[in-house]
Fold each of these.
Amino acid sequence: MSNAAHEDPKPRRKWRRHARPLAGATIIVAAASLAFLDIDPPRQLPSTEPVDLRFIDPSGGEQSLATMRGQPVLVHIWATYCPPCRVELPSLLDYEAEGEVQTVLISVDSTWKALTGFFPEGVPSSVVIARPSDVGRSLGVSSLPETFLLDDKGRIVEHFRGPHEWNEPQTRERIRLALTQR
């Protein structure tokens, strides 16, 4: 008689007794993680201190957010290697063209080569580069994309985490409200 005849007739089913508890635990951990994930977490807004960040413009000159005080500025942090950023960028460029607020599109790409490849017709003048460590230190950015609306004094009055459709009325109203409630 072969050994096969004495083997457990259901060897493949042994994993099932462990799979269900593991699947349940996985679902519980995922749900708990999502409970802490909030696209736009509550923040103390407006910030009391003006934000400053240095960056390099397309001509190679160094600039700073401090030089833009006196007008509201939408500061968008993104990268060419970030898929949600790439999808969101056309609507943000359309919004910028309307001139409602000044925009600064701060890329955390390490070289201009990545940007010139991304914008074959030329890098828009509002696109600049900053080091990720500087962006993280100045604005607390930990994911991409993130956008901050600064008032005319350079203080954060609104924060958008994750991609947004900048042509949607709700997004535009959120910007208008943040600027008028100051």
Amino acid sequence: MRKVALIVAIAVALVVVAYINREKRGSSLEHFHDPPIFKEGLARKGDGEKIGFINEKRDYVIKPQFDDAFPFDEGLAAVKIGSKWGFVDRNGKLVIEPQFESVGSFHEGLAKVWVNGKVGFLNKNGSIVIEPKFNDSGGFSEGLAAVQVGIKWGYIDKTGHIVIPLQFDDQSNFEGGKAKVRLNGKEIQIDNTGRTLSLQQKQVFVPQ
């Protein structure tokens, strides 16, 4: 009897685990957040297989058709079809065809894109305006974006020129003309010329 009870218990446990896993796989597409998080009046929502966008009335305004998607920023949302990423407008129209290995959202009119394993920047017309040559990058903030070459970080302007040399171990976006970076294992604060500023109080460094 004990052996039969043990077999039954194991079978029940396996069924429960399978159900939980199925629910997790479904919930990753169906809900994202509950309640949904809206940006620019729209939120991502899945139907269990594909992802679309709903309005604040919870009605689909862009039907589920994407394999993945980012929230809207500056009027466009990054979407994945198959293995490639592109961008749609608020009507669901593909304005930049899926062609990139990965992308970021638009910030200050530019979005980072991966081409052949390197990062560059794209404008809203779909033109690459900064050649993909970086290992990684942040998004643009206050006219500057952090970029990584090798293991070091620096900052470029919107023409792609490095205006703060590649020297940092880690970085953050500029806010109010200042950014926190790590140099030689120490956290410091710099201005938008790269000049070191003194930290008025100890702050926890959070990589972007």
